[in-house]
Design brief:
The chain is 25% helix and 34% strand. By secondary structure, the chain is α/β, with parallel strands linked by helices. The strands form 2 sheets. The protein has a 9-stranded mixed beta sheet with strand order 2-1-3-4-12-11-10-7-8. The longest helix has 12 residues. The N and C termini lie close together (11 Å).
Amino acid sequence: MKIGVLAVQGAVREHILCLEKLGVKVVPVLRPQDLSGLAGLVLPGGESTAQWRLISRSGLAEPLRAELSQGLPAFGTCAGLILLAKEITNWPERYFGVLDVAVERNATGRQADSFETTVSVDGLGEVPAVFIRAPAIKGVGPTVEILGRLGVEPVLVKEAAILGAAFHPELTEDLRIHEFFVNLCRKE
């Protein structure tokens, strides 16, 4: 099994290391041809508008949209969640729009407002989570499962083979959420 990590900007190296620790073959995705043969794709945290510009310039936007629309399993963290969301409440653009959630960009404030905590995740218990200028999930569609919450707020969601996290699991030593995604890729 081969999983790609969108490698245009953001926490690329950290996701690659997490997946490699789980014994997965990882491919950095920079060009359309890198999508060939993937069992899944991670869209890392970073800066969503910068990522979108680079995705568009590299020619990845339409091939990646097609793959996601055809069911390629995907895991978006922070900015990756924004790229996957159907609606961004405080931004005029929509990117891939394949995950039926409404998100608010930078809902947790500035970089200085970043924090670490634990998140309660169904089936996994308490999972460490890092929030850096994190988006907030403001609404979920009827087929979206809320898997993790911070208090009452959803922070980890799943719809079909798409997983979205408002936080950065790749910045912790805990591999359970990455392992959950790898298992999701195996089922598809």
